[in-house]
C-alpha cells in the first residue's frame, strides 16, 4: 500500500544548509545527542533517534501532529513531519501509516533526499581518513571496532548490518539469526564459489530450484553463501542483500514486492528452498562436495551430542538429507486413541521448527485495577503443545478398527531432537475481519532450556553414555516483531556471538545486555543443543 502523506507541504526541498555537518550515518539526535539510528525528517530536516533508541523521531512527529491537527481539518494528504528517512539505510518510514514508504511524490522528494544523503556520506569518506574519529561519538556506536560496556573494553565488533531495501526487515532478521548459528553458517561459508562447484564457467550453475517458471541460471545457495560471508567481515558499512533479494523474488513469488512479510513464513520458505537446491546438487553430482560436507556436518553434530541416528529420516523428496535437515530436523510422534474401542494409532512427522500457541489463560488482559497474573513461560507453551487433547467434532478420527470416524484424543511427543531447536510463538491469529497480534510477554531462558519432559519415554531412558541423551539447549538467536500487526511493524533480531549479545536492527548493529534480550517479546527462538560432556 502506497503512503498518501507525501504532499509538497510534507516534503521540503533538499537544501544543503538545512542539514548538519558530517556524514549522515553519524548525525546526532537533536534531543539526546545519540548517534545511534539517526533519522531525518522530510519536512524540516531535523535529526532524531529511532524508536529503538529513545524514540525521539516518533515523538517529533507526535508533537507536530498534535499541534497541527486542527489546522489540517482532516486533510489526509497534509501530514507534515510524518515521513522520515534512516540515515544509514536510506529507507523512508511514515509514522502516520506506521509502515515503510515504497512510493514517491511527483517531485521525487524521497529519492532526492536519498541521493543527497548518499552524496554527503560518500564525500565525507573521501575527506576523512578511515581511522579518524567521527565528530559525534557514542560508546555504543555500531561503527566502532571496539565497544565498551560499563567502562570496560569487551571485544571487537565485527558484525555487519543489512540494508533495508524497503520493508525487508523480515528477511534481515532471519538472515542475521541464521548467520549466528555456527554449524549452519560455517557449512555455507566454507562452500567454494559456484563456478568452482560446477567445474564450468561462472554463468553455468549446477544448482537449480524445482519451482515451475524459475530461471535456472540463478542459485539461492550461492547468494545465501555470499551474504553470510559478508556479515562477519568487520565492514563499517551495512551490506546490501539486493542480489539475494532478487533471487528470493525469482524462486519465492510470495515475497515479491515491498510490502511487509511474515518473518516465520520467510524462514520456512528459505530453508525449504535451500534444502531442495542442495538436494538437487547432490542428485546431479553424486558424492559431490556437498555430500562430503554433509558428512562432516554429521560428524560435528555427533560431537555436539546429536548422533547420526537422531537426524531427520531421509524421507524428503528424493531421499537425500542436507545440512538443513541435519541441523534443524527433528521428529514428532503423534498418538491418537479412539475413545470407543481404545485403539491407538501412531504417526511420525519430521519437523524443522515447532509452532507453539500462547496458552489462552495468559492472553486475557487484566483490568488496570487488578493484580498482574502469572507470567507465561516458554515451557508453558511447550506443555500446551504436547498436552493430551480431545479432538472436536470437526476433527473426528477414522478408526481402522471401528471402520468409521470416532471421538478420540491426541498427544504429541518429540521422538528425536534436532541439533538446533527452532520455536515459533503464534503471535498472530485471525478474527472475523483481520489478523490480530497477541502481544503477551513470554519468558524464555537464555541458557539451559530443558525439554526432557516433552520427549518420548524411550528417548528419556537412553543410556547415560549416549551422545543423544542431552536435552538442554542454549539460546543462539531470537527474532522480535515490533508493532501491532503482521502486515506492518518492524522485525529485529538478537543473537549471541563469541559470548556477546548483539542487536541487529537492519543496518544498525549494537551490543546488548542479556537482561535486554530476556525482556524481548520473542517471535522466533533458535536454541542450539548443548554438547554433552563425557561422563556427565
Automatic annotation (TrEMBL):
PROSITE patterns: USP_1, USP_2, USP_3, ZF_UBP. This is Ubiquitin carboxyl-terminal hydrolase. Pfam families: UCH, zf-UBP. PANTHER family: UBIQUITIN CARBOXYL-TERMINAL HYDROLASE, UBIQUITIN CARBOXYL-TERMINAL HYDROLASE 3. It catalyses: Thiol-dependent hydrolysis of ester, thioester, amide, peptide and isopeptide bonds formed by the C-terminal Gly of ubiquitin (a 76-residue protein attached to proteins as an intracellular targeting signal). It comes from Petromyzon marinus. Its EC number is 3.4.19.12. Residues 160-530 form the USP domain. It is an enzyme of class 3 (hydrolase). Residues 1-120 form the UBP-type domain. The keyword Zinc-finger applies. One of its GO terms (molecular function) is zinc ion binding. SUPFAM superfamilies: Cysteine proteinases, RING/U-box. The lineage of its organism: Eukaryota, Metazoa, Chordata, Craniata, Vertebrata. GO terms for biological process: protein deubiquitination; proteolysis. Belongs to the peptidase C19 family. Keywords: Hydrolase, Metal-binding, Protease, Thiol protease, Ubl conjugation pathway, Zinc, Zinc-finger.
Amino acid at each position: 500500500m502506497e503512503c498518501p502523506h507525501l504532499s509538497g507541504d510534507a516534503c521540503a526541498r533538499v537544501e544543503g544548509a538545512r542539514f548538519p555537518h558530517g556524514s549522515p550515518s553519524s548525525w546526532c539526535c537533536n534531543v539526546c545527542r545519540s548517534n545511534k539510528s539517526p533519522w531525518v525528517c522530510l519536512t524540516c530536516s531535523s535529526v532524531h533517534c529511532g524508536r529503538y533508541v529513545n524514540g525521539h523521531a516518533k515523538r517529533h512527529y507526535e508533537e507536530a501532529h498534535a499541534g497541527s491537527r486542527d489546522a489540517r481539518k482532516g486533510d489526509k494528504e497534509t501530514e507534515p513531519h510524518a515521513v522520515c528517512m534512516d540515515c544509514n539505510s536510506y529507507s523512508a518510514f511514515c509514522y502516520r501509516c506506521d509502515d515503510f514508504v515504497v512510493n514517491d511524490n511527483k517531485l521525487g522528494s524521497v529519492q532526492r533526499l536519498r541521493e543527497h544523503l548518499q552524496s554527503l556520506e560518500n564525500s565525507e569518506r573521501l575527506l576523512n581518513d578511515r581511522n579518524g574519529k567521527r565528530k559525534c561519538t557514542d560508546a555504543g556506536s555500531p561503527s566502532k571496532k571496539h565497544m565498551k560496556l560499563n567502562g570496560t573494553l569487551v571485544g571487537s565488533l565485527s558484525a555487519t548490518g543489512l540494508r533495508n531495501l524497503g520493508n525487508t526487515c523480515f528477511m534481515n532478521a532471519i538472515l542475521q539469526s541464521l548467520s549466528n548459528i555456527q554449524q549452519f553458517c560455517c557449512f555455507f561459508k566454507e562452500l567454494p564459489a559456484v563456478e568452482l562447484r560446477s567445474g564450468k564457467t561462472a554463468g553455468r550453475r549446477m544448482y537449480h530450484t524445482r519451482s515451475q517458471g524459475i530461471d535456472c541460471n540463478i542459485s539461492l545457495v550461492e547468494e545465501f553463501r555470499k551474504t553470510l560471508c559478508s556479515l562477519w567481515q568487520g565492514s563499517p558499512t551495512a551490506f546490501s542483500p539486493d542480489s539475494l533479494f532478487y533471487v528470493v523474488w525469482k524462486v519465492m513469488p510470495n515475497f515479491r514486492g515491498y510490502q511487509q512479510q511474515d518473518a516465520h513464513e520467510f524462514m520456512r520458505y528459505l530453508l525449504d528452498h535451500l534444502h531442495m537446491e542442495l538436494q538437487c546438487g547432490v542428485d546431479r553430482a553424486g558424492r559431490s562436495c556437498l555430500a562430503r560436507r554433509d558428512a562432516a556436518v554429521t560428524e560435528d553434530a555427533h560431537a555436539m551430542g546429536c548422533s547420526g541416528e537422531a537426524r531427520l529420516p531421509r524421507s524428503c523428496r528424493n531421499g537425500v538429507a542436507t545440512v538443513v535437515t541435519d541441523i534443524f530436523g527433528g521428529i514428532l510422534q503423534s498418538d491418537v486413541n479412539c475413545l470407543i474401542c481404545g485403539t491407538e494409532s501412531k504417526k511420525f512427522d519430521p519437523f524443522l521448527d515447532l509452532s507453539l500457541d500462547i496458552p489462552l489463560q495468559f492472553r486475557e488482559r487484566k483490568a488496570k485495577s487488578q493484580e498482574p497474573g502469572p507470567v507465561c513461560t516458554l515451557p508453558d507453551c511447550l506443555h500446551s503443545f504436547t498436552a493430551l487433547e480431545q479432538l472436536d467434532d470437526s476433527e473426528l478420527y477414522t478408526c481402522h478398527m471401528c471402520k468409521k470416524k470416532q471421538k478420540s484424543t491426541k498427544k504429541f511427543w518429540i521422538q528425536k531432537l534436532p541439533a538446533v531447536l527452532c520455536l515459533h510463538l503464534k503471535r498472530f491469529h485471525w478474527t472475523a475481519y483481520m489478523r490480530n497480534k497477541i502481544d503477551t510477554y513470554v519468558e524464555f531462558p537464555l541458557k539451559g532450556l530443558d525439554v526432557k519432559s516433552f520427549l518420548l519415554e524411550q528417548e528419556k531412558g537412553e543410556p547415560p553414555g549416549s551422545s543423544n541423551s542431552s536435552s538442554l539447549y542454549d539460546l543462539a538467536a531470537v527474532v522480535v516483531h515490533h508493532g501491532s500487526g503482521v502486515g506492518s511493524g518492524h522485525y529485529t533480531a538478537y543473537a549471541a556471538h563469541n559470548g556477546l549479545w548483539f542487536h541487529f536492527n537492519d543496518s544498525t548493529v549494537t551490543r546488548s545486555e542479556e537482561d535486554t534480550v530476556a525482556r524481548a517479546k520473542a517471535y522466533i527462538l533458535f536454541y542450539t543443543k548443548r554438547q554433552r560432556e563425557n561422563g556427565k
